[in-house]
Amino acid sequence: MYKKSILKWVGLAFVSLTYTACSLPNLVQRTANTAVPATFNNSQDTTNTAKMKWKEFFTDPNLTALIDTALQHNQELNITLQEIQIAQNEVRARKGEYLPFVGLRGGAGVDKVARYTNIGAMEATTDIKPEKEIPEPLPDFMVGAYATWEVDIWHKLHNAKRAALSRYLSSVEGKNFMVTNLIAEIANSYFELLALDNQLAIVKQNIEIQNNALQIVKLQKEATRVTELAVRRFQAQVLNTQSLQYNIQQRITETENRINFLVGRYPQPVQRNNQAFDNLIPKPIQAGIPAQLLSNRPDIKQAELELAAAKLDVKVAKAMFYPSLGISAGIGYQAFNPTYLLKPESLLYTLAGDLAAPLVNKNAIKSVFNSANAKQIQAVYNYERTILNANMEVANQLAKISNLEKSFNLKSQEVEALTQSIDISNNLFRSARADYMEVLLTQRDALESRFDLVETRMQQMNAMVDIYRALGGGWN
Length: 476
Fold this sequence. Notes:
RND transporter; Outer membrane efflux proteins (OEP); OMP_efflux; alpha+beta; lipoprotein; 4-stranded antiparallel β-sheet; elongated; MdtP/NodT-like
């Protein structure tokens, strides 16, 4: 009889499996295209600046102190660290699902059967000796252990655990990518702050030069060599430059507070060497080869792990169409009197197997499978897009570094020429060989050119930081 029962269940399982296999939705698979160009600039040199640790790449002690503080106190980074902890706990939870659940159970209760029920009527008509009567109401005491286990025949639970593990590793790479961006943002803001300090010093120098020119014009007006119009134009130029000073001071305050926010502290002055900007020279960058981005860039590794997790999710969803086997067991003691509880006659045990498979109305399971399949395709495209974007970023920054270097050299010559022209125009003005408009225009052009030179140097430093980030440096 037991053999027939087993054969019946096996037969049902086989029929269910056959029917399920025939009714599976179509699986759309797409392989990610990870092919990248052979080189960035026709060089096969594999030396890569991204391998440098950020403390070696950035040597300014004030900047490294800011980065150190940010890595400890930046709120967004700390939020991400908690997300990693959540992902790690998810891995533990998934691992526990394919192991047996074992627990202890104990209970006590009382039961009074109504007289006019089938059980009550049977007890009333049963001839039981007085000393053997069933207590009324009937107490019930029980203590024992129980276990349940879903046998992972189709690796559904194991694949779910592996998907959770991939997402945990993905969250770690996400944290690394955030560290890279955080370091780059602090460095760029720091160099911007140095540039603003430099521009403020230029403005103050120009205010002094313009004030001297204004005094000369006033003396020349007294000598009737110029009119009141010249005095007013020079005075307006001084006022315009003075207003520019306060605009720069406001930008300095905002940049300082941007840095303070990134390092997780309230507004306060940012320690820096104001004289260091003139001596800043961008570091030489070695880009290596594009294939190195696949291992250097945390966002690419994150996308790769998300793709692996999405593929495992498809396997988990596919396994939901197949029968699941569950086993439950229990052992313990149960009696209506505590004094009988530990006697051999009170021993009870149970062992059961449960086989279940979906046959009709599988819309919910099909929807889960189709969604997992679509997310897998989505993850493939995201992986390809991340690789493409990384290559574009490096190519753009390499071109920017080259062009900014040429631009800086030309602007340096422009500043030198215009700085000399200020003295020339002043001398010509004193000897009445140039009018005041030539002096004003020369001073304005010289100020703008010096501003542009500082701006170009700042862009060079930012490009150096951005190429380091684009190559995947900073997180290690």
